[in-house]
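User: I'm new to structure prediction. If I give you an amino acid sequence, what do you actually give back? Let's try with this one:
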Amino acid sequence: MDNNKGYVTINIDVNGIGTIEFYHPQSNSLPGEILSEIANTINEASLNRDIKVIILKSAGDRTFCAGASFDELIEIENIKSGINFFSGFANVINACRKCTKIIIGRVQGKAVGGGVGIASAVDYCFATQHASVKLSELALGIGPFVVGPAVERKIGLSAMSSLAINADKWFDADWALQKGLYSEIFLDNAQMDKAIEQLAYKLSKSHVEATKKLKEIFWKGTEHWDELLLKRAKISGELILSNFSKDAIKKTQNK
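Assistant: Good question. You get back a string of structure tokens that encode the predicted 3D arrangement of the chain. For your 255 residues, that looks like this:
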């Protein structure tokens, strides 16, 4: 993948800690190719016996993830391409769900839309005080249909509804911690990274079968998500074709 268009990498250290990093020059936004690479990399890491625990992070010191790529959203012209694009988010969430390894999330800054979905899909999420969250989809004429189940599972229907309805509001990291999206928050990246390193090392020494069984318990009741998230992708894929959505995206791009 051309680094100017973004990348997804994985690094495996001597302790079996697999660090997956994604990057896109537009505030770590998520075009279809990046989404596909993230899902595939997680799936491969799940099967890799050399990996004991996974850290999922984005590059840079600022925005964690700006959500869906507006450049790709504006180019969607039919239901098929719409479903394909939003299925990318479904595939990432399902990859996290099915992964046999514990996934630690690292959220260094703001998370929007699909970024909130990723933070919800990991098993233990670290963040900094700068990691505000927003589900902006309703303001774009769609809704957080694909990421919604993951967000609701993590923070509950009431908190997810607050995010979904107040689509222009940033909810701060303290709010996300209180609701259970984040497991711990820190003043800066250095403190966060030290804590991530310590937990990842401990988990790398855990019994592989024990962590696998624990993951199954964490995600019990989500076995139907392959079908559910595809249905949700179809809803978003249809709505993104509206003139309302196209105009809203253009206005946001021009700000």
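You can read the tokens as a compact description of the fold. Here is one thing that stands out. The chain is about 50% helix and 15% strand.
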